[in-house]
Amino acid sequence: MAETTPLTQTPPARPAQRLLAVDGLRFLAAAAVMLYHFTATSTVTRYWGGTPGADLFPVLNHVTRYGWLAVELFFVISGFFILMTAQGRSLAHFTGSRVGRLFPAYWACIVITALLHAVWSGGRQLTFGETLLNLTMVQELFGVQSSQVVFWTLLAELKFYLLVAVLLAFGPMTRLKVLGLATLWPLAGMLARAAGQYELGEVLVARYAPYFAVGMLLFLLRRDGVRGNGAVLAVLGGNLALCCHLVIVATGHATTLQGVPVNPVVALALMLLCVVAVWVASSPRVEARGRVTVALCTAGGLLTYPVYLVHSEFGYATIEALASRGVGPWVTLAAAVAVTGALSWAIYRFVEERWSRRLRHAVVRAMTPTAGERVPQRRAATSSA
């Protein structure tokens, strides 16, 4: 295939089930992050009144202590889906799709978290001005703490979106552009850190750029096929090597943070398994079958983002409220998960379902005031990307 082949060609029609497996995978990743924060991090110790690993969940903790790897899985999936999202879209449509997808649920989460902090002193206490700055999603660029612990990942996502948007601003996404981005971006980040330029490394998302790159390259292989794609496979191999290095470094940090041993071999195996899972789940041969499976994967795709956004502070508040009253750890954990699920459903039902599409259309209209372009309707298969 020619190096200048645009990725904006109209993709072939696909059944909606094709990507339901990835929706299910995304939800499992969100659940893994949630359980990691509820049963493994050092932060949650003060809410439980005991060490989760040693005292409360000695068996479960051997699994959930690796839940932080789900963030890396999210970044791989994001690299795959964002490149797919850029197909057939102008810069305005791409920007509108991202703004409409991210911000309504995020703004709702900021508001309800501020209400929680007004009545609960155990969480992250922000001033009114800091809360307003959190609405931008770039608060950490100004040295302001996020109201929920996971929000730092959204800034990493925004930086990735910005890179894709810059490429779109100079014309359609081509195979050559994608290969260039997947090669130069992670390499530049690693070189910046190696040279001691840590601030530049943060700007370039050096610790996570290889995961986004892996996702993009998996998409190219899915679109074009593996055979005859030696250049893509070579760049993929290089990025996987960088991912392995990053995981080994991160296991040391995870061990220190959690106070329990995190095995680098296990972490490496899980990270590679995550990459394989994305490859398998994105295959057109993998379909969700049966009404129950389809319903679960669909619901998982819709609730993943709200679950990811709200779980930490509301889960911690629930854990503290119940554990301090002597409620058993398993009942308390179930209650924290239930509270997270209920809030997530409410955010989807009353915020995302009503406002995401409206905001997306408004952004597109604002960026194309005279073009009269119609916002393309996306199939259900990509609605949760």
Automatic annotation (TrEMBL):
InterPro entries: Acyl_transf_3_dom, Acyltransferase_3
A GO term, aspect molecular function: acyltransferase activity, transferring groups other than amino-acyl groups
Any Pfam family the entry gives: Acyl_transf_3
Sequence ranges assigned to domain Acyltransferase in this UniProt record: 21-349
Keywords on record: Acyltransferase, Membrane, Transferase, Transmembrane, Transmembrane helix
Protein origin, superkingdom: Bacteria
Record field: transmembrane: 27-48, 68-87, 99-120, 149-171, 178-198, 204-221, 233-254, 260-280, 292-310, 330-351
Alphabetical GO biological process terms: lipopolysaccharide biosynthetic process
GO CC terms of this entry: membrane
Name this polypeptide is given: Acyltransferase 3
Record organism: Isoptericola variabilis (strain 225)
